[in-house]
Each structure stands twice: as C-alpha cells, then as structure tokens.
Design a protein that fits this description.
The chain has 316 residues and is α/β, with parallel strands linked by helices. It folds into two domains: 3-234, Rossmann fold (3-Layer(aba) Sandwich), CATH 3.40.50; 239-314, Lrp/AsnC effector binding domain/regulation of amino acid metabolism (RAM) domain (Alpha-Beta Plaits, 2-Layer Sandwich), CATH 3.30.70.920. 34% of the residues lie in helices and 28% in strands. It contains eleven helices and 13 strands. A six-stranded mixed β-sheet has the order 5-6-7-3-8-9, with helices on both faces. Strands 11-12-10-13 form a four-stranded antiparallel β-sheet. β11 (263-268) and β12 (273-277) form a beta hairpin. The longest helix has 16 residues, at 159-174. The chain is elongated, with a radius of gyration of 24 Å. The relative contact order is 0.13. Adenosine-5'-triphosphate binds next to α1.
Length: 316
C-alpha cells in the first residue's frame, strides 16, 4: 500500500475544511481528488504531506511509521511553486536539489524529462506559465520519487499548456509512478486517473475506480479502464448535446425530430422543444433536415453541457 488515510479531519475555528477523510492509494494508481473550489482538496493534500496539521485522524505512507526517509519517495507540487524569478531554470533546480539532498547530476535528467533542457540557462521570469509548471514538475521529480502529489497541476494553463502537462503526467504514470492529483475538473480526472475520490464541502461523496464512480455518480459511461492506454481516450462522445429548437408547428416538428437517428429524446418546453442528441450534429445539418421535411425553423441553438457542468450541478 502506498498511502492509507484514516479519518483525517481539519478545522479552522468551527469551520470543518476536511471531515473524516479516509482513502487508500495502491501502487501504480493515478488517484484523483475531485471537488469544486473550497471542497477541501488542498487541505487534504496538505495533511498527507505534513504541511497542514490535522485535528484528528492519521495517515501512513508505504506501510511504515513516519520519518524523513519516506519523504524522499514523495515528490510534490502544492499551491504555486516558489522559484527565484531572476535565476535560470538550472540554478533554481540546484537550490531544490540542495534542499532535497539530491546530486546536481540529476538536474539535466529531470529537465530533459519535462522538455526544458534547452531552456536551462533562461531566467525563470522569462518562462511561460506552462514552462513554469513543468519546471515545478521537474523539481518534484528530483530524487526520482515513487510517488507524485500534485495540486491542480494544470491550473491557469492555456489549452496547449494543459495538454503538455497532462501528457507528461500520463507518461509518468505509464512508467509506473503512483500519482495523487487534486483537480476541480471532472474532465481532467476522467482523462488521467484510474481512481477518484469526490469531495464536497469537506466531505467525501464517493470513491472508487474512475469508470465505476463516474458512471454511477454522473451517468457517464466510459470504456473499461483496465488497460493503461485506454486512459488516453478522449471523452468527446460523453458530452451531452442538447438543442433548443422551434417552428410554427411544434407538433409536426416534434414528430419529425423523433425520426432523426441522432435524436435520443424530445422534451416540450413552453414555446420551444428541447432535443437531446447522441452526436454533435452541426446546426446547418439539422436545419437542412427539417427544411427537407417541409419545416422552417424559427429558432435553433445548441447547448453543449460539458462534464464539468454536469459535475458542478451534482456537487452544487
Ligand atoms: N488557513 C485557513 N484558514 C481558514 N480557512 C481555510 C484555511 N485554508 C483553507 N481554508 C478553508 O477551507 C476550505 C477548503 O479549502 P481548500 O483550499 O482545501 O479547498 P480546495 O478544494 O483546495 O479548493 P480550490 O479548488 O479552490 O483549490 C475553504 O473553505 C477554505 O476557505
Ligand atoms: Mg486547492
């Protein structure tokens, strides 16, 4: 067992930031802690990293009693990483290596790993947000830890930066590292985690394998998650796509919509219909299909509900 957490609780005054949190992480898992802002993710990570002192409960890394030796097997990024703005990447990592008691020879290795070797002589302040995040990962990788604990590693990144960091995490997981990752993005957890614990207002709502939890909690049906590479699959087909649609004759419109192969369900609204589609069909094709059946649309908008939105609705 990599980590066993027993009833950890953290209070700030009378406010309970984390309430009776228990979970287990096995070797090789990518364990996600999923929850909206303020649900207690960082508090929980802070406790297992010995940065935040719990009011109750306990945890155990590697089935052994706490000690500085086990800390060497855990690399972490908690909150925004601290680097010196004017120093270059290499110098910043030298400081991190000194603190971690790791030889300088590892610096190039980890820089290469996060694809920043060519930038090692550039000042930290010249780095993009994505590069800064990758440098933080490089620092966490010093000492080649068995476990990585990452708090919102893609926060604030643009889509390209998100992809870079996610791919890096995935390749580290494929190398057999155990990864514990906090995120408020359901889509992110779905893409990279094998296991998940869902938190809300300091409590654990659900925990288990990603495919099981997401299908029972969110009605999302993922393909079997057993194979490592299946994690790389995208979830485009899991978005719920709705259209709000209207014509003069709503009754006729409903009949015709129900005949379309990609329409799953049609619901009546006041002056419009709401149709749920199983495919992302463009508005033009829907318009054309209706026109071919003698219906002129007076209204057509697409409402794409992302997994994040569905998740937010459930944890609201
Ligand atoms: N030092 C503190 N003093 C008082 N309250 C705190 C402190 N740290 C956290 N909290 C509160 O505890 C709750 C949980 O915070 P935490 O940072 O763990 O949430 P989170 O799930 O990481 O949220 P986010 O997604 O915004 O990072 C929040 O309501 C927060 O305001
Ligand atoms: Mg947080």
């Amino acid at each position: 067992m990599i980590l066993k957490v027993n009833s950890l609780t953290k209070k700030y005054g009378r406010f309970i930031a984390a309430n009776n949190i228990s979970f287990e992480v096995e070797e090789g898992q990518v364990f996600g802690i999923l929850g909206p802002n303020g649900s207690g993710k960082t508090t929980t990570l802070g406790m297992i990293l010995d940065v935040t002192s719990p009011d109750a409960g306990s945890y155990c890394w590697f089935d052994t009693t706490p000690g500085s030796n086990q800390r060497k097997h855990i690399g972490s990024i908690l909150e925004t990483p601290n680097f010196y703005q004017h120093l270059d990447a290499e110098s910043n990592l030298k400081i991190a290596a000194l603190i971690k008691d790791v030889p300088y020879s590892q610096i190039d290795v980890v820089l290469q790993r996060v694809n920043l070797l060519e930038r090692k002589k550039y000042a930290f302040r010249t780095f993009s947000l994505g590069m800064k995040q990758r440098l933080a990962l490089a620092a966490a990788l010093l000492g080649n830890p068995k476990v990585l604990v990452l708090d919102e590693p893609t926060n604030g990144l643009d889509p390209q930066g998100i992809i870079e960091v996610r791919e890096l995490i995935q390749s580290l997981a494929n190398e057999g590292k155990t990864i514990i990752i906090a995120s408020h993005l359901l889509d992110e957890i779905e893409k990279i985690c094998t296991n998940v614990m869902v938190m809300k207002q300091g409590n654990v709502l659900a925990a288990g394998r990603v495919d099981e939890i997401l299908s029972s909690q969110f009605g999302i049906h993922t393909s079997s998650k057993g194979a490592k590479d299946s994690k790389l699959q995208t979830n485009n087909n899991m978005e719920e796509i709705r259209i709000e649609i209207a014509a003069d004759d709503l009754y006729l419109l409903e009949l015709e919509l129900e005949r379309l192969p990609y329409v799953v369900k049609v619901e009546k609204r006041k002056e419009t219909l709401m149709a749920i589609l199983n495919k992302n069909i463009d508005n033009k094709s829907i318009n054309q299909a209706m026109f071919d059946r003698g219906i002129v649309l007076s209204h057509l908008i697409k409402i794409k509900k992302t997994l994040e939105q569905q998740f937010l609705e459930i944890t609201k």
